[in-house]
Design goal:
2 strands, Lysozyme
């Protein structure tokens, strides 16, 4: 009997086919916790979308304000230039060496003619051939600006810097039309 029992035990253990048929597992829907998690994520996405839309609208509003401010500033600057050009007489009078360049400066420095003449008087005294070795011309343009001088005026630095028109034109470029005199030691 022991041998039969042993054979039956081995047979049942080694048999790969189950003795009974197992039913398929039952499909279970999402749990309550899973549904709650999905709802939280959906709410977070909605909040993020609303915040993104609000942020974009704020950026558009700021850009519009900046654009309007730039336009107002341009109008104020235009009005100031018009008022400066409408002024019938110069507010300062300079020596004849400097004063002879008023018309040329008026063409390149609208609204900043007196400032330009002040710099000319201090830098060269109105002498277009003035030189201190490294700075030359009416506005005493430094050699370090040679490549920019050629690009702006179309003339080589060492020849063109003594040309009053080219010198004034480059000074207008360098000073932003008379709004930034930081490149000169003489400042209005």
């Amino acid at each position: 009997m022991d041998v039969v029992y042993l054979a039956l035990t081995v047979f049942l253990t080694l048999n790969p086919a189950p003795m009974t048929f197992d039913p398929a597992p039952v499909q279970v829907g999402p749990t309550q916790a899973h549904r709650a998690t999905r709802a939280v994520k959906a709410d977070a996405r909605d909040r993020a979308d609303r915040e993104r839309r609000r942020w974009r609208a704020e950026r558009r509003r700021i850009r519009a304000e900046r654009r309007a401010e730039r336009e107002r500033e341009a109008l104020r600057a235009a009005a100031a230039r018009a008022a400066a050009q409408a002024a019938p007489s110069p507010s300062r009078s300079y020596s004849s060496g400097t004063e002879q360049w008023r018309g040329l400066c008026g063409a390149y420095f609208p609204g900043h003619v007196d400032e330009a003449l002040y710099v000319i008087r201090g830098e060269s005294g109105g002498n277009p051939r003035a030189s201190n070795g490294i700075c030359r011309g009416l506005f005493q343009i430094h050699e370090c600006h040679a490549s920019a001088f050629r690009r702006v005026t179309g003339l080589p630095y060492f020849d063109g810097v003594y040309d009053p028109t080219a010198n004034v034109r480059f000074a207008a470029y360098l000073s932003g039309g008379g709004t930034n005199w930081s490149a000169w030691s003489v400042r209005p």
